Structures are given as C-alpha cells and as structure tokens.
Amino acid sequence: MMVWVKRISLLILTLAVFIVGVTYLFWMPSPQEAPYQLVKTWGGKGEKPGQFNEPTGIALAGNEIFVSDSRNTRIQVFDLDGNFKRMFGEQGDAPGQLNRPMNLTIAGDELYVAEFFNDRIQVYGLDGKFRRSIGKAGSAGGEMSAPGGVAVNADGELFVADFFNQRVQQLAADGRFIRQWGTTKKTGVLDGRLNYPTDVAINSEGVLYIADGYNDRILAFGPDGELLHRWGGPFAMNIFGPFNSWFATVTGISIGPRGDVFVADFYNDRVQKFSAEGEFINAFGIESTAPTHTAIAVVEADDGSVFVADYANHQVQKWQPGE
Questions:
Q1: Backbone angles phi and psi of 55, in degrees to 5
Q2: Is 211 helix (H, G, I), strand (E, B) or coil?
Q3: Quick one: how far is CA 263 from the chain centroid?
Q4: Cα 299 from Cα 214, distance rounded (Å)
Q5: Distance separating alpha carbons of residues 160 and 246, to the nearest angstrom
Q6: Tens of pLDDT along 241-257?
Q7: Distances 178 to 41, 46, 133, 194 between C-alpha atoms, Å
Q8: Which of 2-6, 40-44, 197-201, 301-305 is predicted least confidently?
Q9: Angle CA 283–284–287, to nearest 5
Q10: Quick one: how far is CA 308 from the chain centroid?
Q11: First to last CA, the chain
Q12: Nearest-angstrom CA–CA distance, 146 and 123
C-alpha cells in the first residue's frame, strides 16, 4: 500500500514540475535585451512650474516633452533633460480649459488631450494655443464618458478610449462617428467586449492597439477592424500578475520610433516592451516592496530614451537602454 502511495505522490510531483515548467516557458518569457537604466527623474509634488500633482500622460514632439499634470489641470512642457519650458491650461470646462487631462497624443503640429472629467478631446497647437474640441458627454456615437486616451491615424481620424462607455470609438477628424470596438456600457472578456479601456495607440501600418485596462491585456486590430493579436495573462484573459507579459491594469500604451509597443503596467510599477506582434522584449521600473503606482504613461524618444509619467511620486522618469 505504501508503495502505491509513494508512486502516486511521485506522479503528482512530476506533473506539478511539468506544469510549472510549461507555465514558465510560455507565460514568463525572458528579456531579449540588456536592462534599461534609470538616468534621471524630475518633478516632485507641488503647484510651481516643473512640479506635478499626479501626472497621468506624456508625449514627445521633437526635443520637447508634454506632460499631463492632472490634478493641477495643466499641461507642462520640458526639454529632454527635464528643464521646464512652458505650461498651459487652467481649471474649467470652457474651450481651452482642462479638468483631469489624461493620456496625450501628438499628430503633426497638434497636441490631443483626453479630458476625463470634461468628456471630450481637446486639440492644441504645440505652442499651447487652443484650436478645437471634439465630443461631449453621453453614450451615443461621437459622445464620450471619461475618455482616457486618444490616437490619430494618417487620415486625421481619432480613436478614443471611452472609459465608462466600455468601448473604443473611431471618429472622423470633425468628430463624426465611424465605428467602435466593444459593447457600449457592457463589460466583458469575450464576445469583443472591453473592461474599462484606458488608452490607445496606432502604428504606421494602421494597426490599432487597445489598452484593455481592467482586463489586463492588449488587443491589436488591423485597419479592417479585425483582431490580429492579444496578449496579457494566461490565454490573454484578465488574470493579472507580476510575470513578464502579464499586467496588473494597463494604463498607457505607445508606439516607439522603431515600431515597438511600450505598455505602462500600473499596479506592477513597471513598463513592458513588446514587438508589434506582442512578443515580450523587456521590462523595467522603479523597484518597490509594495505597489506604489509609479508607471502610468510612457513614450520613447528617437534615441531610445524612454520617459515615464510617475503618478505616485509626482515626477517624470528618464530611462536609457543598457549596453
């Protein structure tokens, strides 16, 4: 009897080791490049120029960095070394005023700002002058409920992460509704549904990447609207975790100059880097003994430097690739 017990125990142990090995192989890939190095931070909590109160978005135009200083209801602009240059915006809901600016996108000579509390996208010149507003509160086509991010394609069409409406909308440049991904006001993992989408990005091939925030995954759709790739927890389901290629709430996504996909993995305090097809490349962030929400938005510069909006520490991080 004892012999059979030992054999069964050994079989169970062997199966457990096999399952762990397969899990590690397929769901916990290793980095494909040297670690990134943190080279600089700037900011600190406050209202003065150069200080932040919960930064939530970041974008690059040439040698300038634009940061959503959300609780201070303004956009701040810096050079690549963190030197303050200018700022614009003030509290309110009139044209040009802001209320909880979130993820940012730059297209041509224009800055697009997703406004969480004003339920709209505002467009500014890079000099900070207001140009136009797109959308209004609601759940009909072209209306929004707390947009978290926006992307713009080569034709000037907008893609909006419509947070509380549980969808991503594609809009014409003038705001006319074209189509959407997700079911309005319905959350889910299957059947094309989303779960509080937080941001979007679009690459030079017209592939749309959706940060499906509370589903802890990334979805990639071709120009025809069909699903190409998805990645996240096991089977790309909403199972969060600290492993490579897994997420604990995706809050920001951007496409680098070489086509790589950078993802802000909020509750894991890190940025993850992927190929355009979702192959894991690298991960980096400020080490912490407990979640502190240190990566909410991310963007890569032409020289490979990566800038991260650090929500918890009210600062911007600058990282550079390792050798």
A1: -65, 140
A2: strand
A3: 5
A4: 21
A5: 24
A6: 889 999 999 999 999 99
A7: 41, 41, 18, 18
A8: 2-6
A9: 130
A10: 10
A11: 59
A12: 16
In this prediction, residue 256 carries a pLDDT of 98
φ, ψ of residue 214 to 5 degrees: the values are -85, -5
The structure tokens listed for 127 are: 């000099």
Using CA atoms, how far apart are residues 112 and 114, in angstroms rounded to an integer? Answer: 7
Measure Cα distances from 181 to 46, 152, 212, 252 in Å: 38, 16, 11, 18
Global confidence as pTM: 0.92
Q: Residue length, the chain?
A: 323
**Token output for 10:** 């050994």
- 128 CB-contact burial (10 Å; exposed 0-12 / middle 13-18 / buried 19+): middle
**CA 172 – CA 158 distance, rounded (Å):** 6
Comparing CA positions, the residue from 134, 135, 112 lying closest to residue 125 is: 112
Q: Is 19 left (phi over 0), alpha (psi -120 to 50) or beta?
A: alpha
| Token couple for 216 | 């802890």
Q: Rounded distance, CA 124 to CA 88, Å? A: 10
pLDDT at 236 (0 to 100): 87
Which residue, chain included where needed, has tokens 């707390």?
146
Distances in Å between the alpha carbon of 26 and those of 86, 238, 260, 274, 291? 46, 17, 20, 15, 25
* Structural tokens at position 148: 């978290």
Q: What is the mean pLDDT of residues 19-41?
A: 78
Return phi, psi of residue 189, to 5°.
-105, -35
What does the pLDDT read at residue 155? 95
Angle at CA 24, nearest 5°, toward 18 and 26?
A: 100
